[in-house]
Specification:
Length: 219
Amino acid sequence: MLGVRPDTVGAGRTDAGVHALGQVMGVPGVADDADLAGLHLSLNRLCGPSIAVNSVIRVPEDWHARFSARSRTYVYAVLQVPVHDPWLAGTSFHHPGGLDVAAMNEACGHLVGEHDFSAFGRVAEALSPQRNLWELRWTQSGHLLRLRARASSFIGQMVRSLAGTLIRVGEGRGSPDDMPAVLASRDRGAAGPVAPPHGLCLVSVEYDDGWSRPFDPFR
């Protein structure tokens, strides 16, 4: 469409099977006279229905989809019903038993803040496992539970590991008071299992620039 093979930069990576409602993609080097409205229409014709492009806008030259981001927000969805729901099977983790949401949120309180999250994911040797988790909480709407996690950035599989650990607490197989020791261990084996990918969704990426309006229908 642009007459060249463009470079593309995503705001965040997702594991195979993870969804995104608020992914942001940067395309540097687009000509000043490019028809953005036409590009928007053509992209949706080409990528739909699996991918929807919500908007195409021009950004400052020094803007970067990944490094200019101030925060990222993920939601992990758990469907708590005895029988699975085929309509939600692709976007939520089916859990037939009851979960103690109060205990899960109590555990969240021990994890919010700046910590070494080595126990809850994997990180490349050159990077630090230190992350500042600004928000972590469960909400419930009917049979659907949602874990909302917001941070400046996450290490690999961090949100899925947090979800799996908190679900284990909700099942009564762990205590909220265990969380400080799990963090201090820096041992992946001390935390719970990695929750399945299909329940996770990147819902928004936030920027300091005034043009950015995060797309977050779960707020």
